[in-house]
Amino acid sequence: MSNKLQRWKLAQRYESNWWRDNIHYLSTEYYAKTAEDIRVLFNRFDNLSSSTHILEVGTGACGILSFLYESSVRYGIDPLEDYYAGIAKVQEIRQPGVQYLAAKGEDFYT
Length: 110
Prior knowledge:
Elements: H1 3-22, H2 28-42, E1 53-57, E2 73-78, H3 81-85, H4 88-93, E3 98-102
Parallel strand pairs: 1-2, 2-3
């Protein structure tokens, strides 16, 4: 196994362990605030609408796109999605209408 792949797997293990130990810190406040900041910046150029397609790479447990309600086409990818999908608290705060997929953003660069 290459050094790069070993480091990547170690990082994923650290990330899932952090969420396992700190899931009680999960709050929508960060995601909602960041979504509002993105909304303000985006609306300088165009208006978010139901037809706006959004892809968030590395959504983490919830994803900022959960709070960009204007769009009805929202996808989030994260390599730990299968892990997040099994956590009840994560499912409680995720917003309907977002499709979460287990994938690595790095795969798009190889």
